[in-house]
């Protein structure tokens, strides 16, 4: 199973990478994680260039032996809906499966099929909530995400995520394909807060990997001049 | 222009194990003091508690000191000091403060008078202040009966000072208002805020480790590696009851 995470990644922070929890019950083996920074054309306020966000993610992942950053989404000519990114990575996953020869040990058994990995969208509970926002997600896409791929949703209390699922029939229908993982640690490091702290010259050490902090400094990102103008968090 | 008062921050605690949250306290406190315009933080000290403190699941001090040292490899201003942990008995916080303050005074440069032909005495070097760094939860414990000696609380806030880091201002302010001795010296209690909800409980960390769960990105990698190499916080050594 691969976990794909599509987030805007204004800057890379521990929280995005942190929420990997082993699925209990022994049903799954997570074989890889993918961070997919959004395309610049997404047009979100204060979004620094994708090449920076990709580079920072790469630095943050230097010490991970199973998560990687994939710049494909950010390199497209336009912004892509999440479901299209899922479809792309799923195709790539299938393409990378080994073509096994039949292991013939003298018996006429066909080769056992390799288990096809599943690609699941990894997100926080807040993203689950956005499925309810009118006109944000296409209904058909939500269905495809939960039906064909699956969601792994990490949050602190179980209640919020469960409530969001109950609030949307399409989610309720496929709740067997929505995994709720809990992290009791209140580890909500808001990227907006990070950007503001940086623009005010405050320390963000121990909130971001050191290598990412160094990159931000070397490339003069998130400085006072480039920081957001209004004071909304 | 009035020069800033040099400050050293001292954090006492189990550090069992040290987490990114502990380290974060220092960074937030330093930024806060600098923003007042009155202080210049010149150093930070982590002082792991003595083994004789007898807290449940406390791993040997030599490990806790070693882990703190590893965690601080990338810091250019915070260090770990094993003095408290090396004493023959547990020490009250005020005694640790007194020790480090003495050491601070001892380390001040003895300046010769810079005589430029005028008979001026040498300007005195600003004496650094040693302040106790803690979370708002520690401030609350001052109210716990029989936990702190009144005279010690007074000495801590009067002679040294507190820098208290918390998320919401309200809790810490309420604890100060609830204790006359704290109210009296509130000018010497600095409340620093960190909006990031970064409460990494060491108890949670120990439990996660004993259950084989990942704590990557909650602790520095070097500390995780140390814990693994020395077989700390495993299932066998983990706490027996289920209280958090």
UniProtKB/TrEMBL annotation, chain A:
It catalyses: beta-nicotinamide D-ribonucleotide + ATP + H(+) = diphosphate + NAD(+); nicotinate beta-D-ribonucleotide + ATP + H(+) = deamido-NAD(+) + diphosphate. It is found in: Mitochondrion. GO terms for molecular function: ATP binding; nicotinamide-nucleotide adenylyltransferase activity; nicotinate-nucleotide adenylyltransferase activity. It comes from the Eukaryota. It is an enzyme of class 2 (transferase). The keyword Signal does not apply. GO terms for cellular component: mitochondrial matrix. Residues 29-196 form the Cytidyltransferase-like domain. Pathway: Cofactor biosynthesis; NAD(+) biosynthesis; deamido-NAD(+) from nicotinate D-ribonucleotide: step 1/1; Cofactor biosynthesis; NAD(+) biosynthesis; NAD(+) from nicotinamide D-ribonucleotide: step 1/1. Keywords: ATP-binding, Mitochondrion, NAD, Nucleotide-binding, Nucleotidyltransferase, Pyridine nucleotide biosynthesis, Transferase. Signal peptide: none annotated. It holds the Pfam family CTP_transf_like. Gene3D superfamilies: HUPs. InterPro entries: Cyt_trans-like, Euk_NMN_adenylyltrnsfrase, NadD/NMNAT, Rossmann-like_a/b/a_fold. Its EC number is 2.7.7.1, 2.7.7.18. Belongs to the eukaryotic NMN adenylyltransferase family. Homotetramer. Catalyzes the formation of NAD(+) from nicotinamide mononucleotide (NMN) and ATP. Can also use the deamidated form; nicotinic acid mononucleotide (NaMN) as substrate with the same efficiency. Can use triazofurin monophosphate (TrMP) as substrate. Can also use GTP and ITP as nucleotide donors. Also catalyzes the reverse reaction, i.e. the pyrophosphorolytic cleavage of NAD(+). For the pyrophosphorolytic activity, can use NAD(+), NADH, NaAD, nicotinic acid adenine dinucleotide phosphate (NHD), nicotinamide guanine dinucleotide (NGD) as substrates. NCBIfam families: nicotinate (nicotinamide) nucleotide adenylyltransferase. This is Nicotinamide-nucleotide adenylyltransferase. It comes from Equus caballus (Horse).
Automatic annotation (TrEMBL), chain B:
InterPro entries: Cyt_trans-like, Euk_NMN_adenylyltrnsfrase, NadD/NMNAT, NMNAT_euk, Rossmann-like_a/b/a_fold. Its cofactor is Mg(2+). Pathway: Cofactor biosynthesis; NAD(+) biosynthesis; NAD(+) from nicotinamide D-ribonucleotide: step 1/1; Cofactor biosynthesis; NAD(+) biosynthesis; deamido-NAD(+) from nicotinate D-ribonucleotide: step 1/1. Keywords: ATP-binding, Mitochondrion, NAD, Nucleotide-binding, Nucleotidyltransferase, Pyridine nucleotide biosynthesis, Transferase. The keyword RNA-binding does not apply. It catalyses: nicotinate beta-D-ribonucleotide + ATP + H(+) = deamido-NAD(+) + diphosphate; beta-nicotinamide D-ribonucleotide + ATP + H(+) = diphosphate + NAD(+). GO terms for molecular function: ATP binding; nicotinamide-nucleotide adenylyltransferase activity; nicotinate-nucleotide adenylyltransferase activity. It comes from the Eukaryota. The keyword Nucleotidyltransferase applies. GO terms for cellular component: mitochondrial matrix. It is found in: Mitochondrion. One of its GO terms (biological process) is NAD+ biosynthetic process. It holds the Pfam family CTP_transf_like. Its EC number is 2.7.7.1, 2.7.7.18. Residues 10-207 form the Cytidyltransferase-like domain. Homotetramer. Belongs to the eukaryotic NMN adenylyltransferase family. Catalyzes the formation of NAD(+) from nicotinamide mononucleotide (NMN) and ATP. Can also use the deamidated form; nicotinic acid mononucleotide (NaMN) as substrate with the same efficiency. Can use triazofurin monophosphate (TrMP) as substrate. Can also use GTP and ITP as nucleotide donors. Also catalyzes the reverse reaction, i.e. the pyrophosphorolytic cleavage of NAD(+). For the pyrophosphorolytic activity, can use NAD(+), NADH, NaAD, nicotinic acid adenine dinucleotide phosphate (NHD), nicotinamide guanine dinucleotide (NGD) as substrates. This is Nicotinamide-nucleotide adenylyltransferase. It comes from Equus asinus (Donkey).
